[in-house]
User: Which sequence fits this backbone?
């Protein structure tokens, strides 16, 4: 798809690994890239409240998986940052108590249960 655009508009004949894929593999790649774009578009609606945090994290996981299949990893930092922002915004889903574990030698043991403090937005 992009290769034709480059050739038609710029008379540029790209010979990179992706542009020289056989037609069937190129079509499959285009489908994966379109899927990633659609998933990113849906993820962007989280900030407007159209989807909740759990759906947003599912979308992040799907984008990650499709990117892995496509071998497209250049935006993973951005994707991880998006997931972190969603998780931080929805910290109310984390249980208010959690166990603090310690590792001594090869054994993991529960040392105490701590109460999480709710952040009230004030410093």
Assistant:
């Amino acid at each position: 798809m992009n290769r034709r655009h480059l050739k038609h508009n710029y008379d540029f004949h790209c010979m990179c690994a992706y542009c020289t894929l056989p037609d069937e593999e190129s079509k499959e790649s285009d489908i994966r890239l379109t899927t990633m774009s659609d998933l990113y578009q849906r993820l962007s609606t989280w900030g407007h409240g159209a989807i909740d945090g759990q759906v947003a994290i599912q979308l992040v996981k799907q984008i990650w998986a499709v990117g892995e299949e496509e071998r497209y990893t250049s935006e993973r930092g951005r994707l991880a940052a998006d997931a972190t922002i969603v998780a931080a915004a929805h910290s109310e889903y984390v249980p208010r108590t959690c166990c603090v574990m310690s590792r001594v030698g090869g054994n993991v043991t529960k040392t105490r249960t701590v109460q999480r403090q709710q952040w009230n937005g004030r410093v």
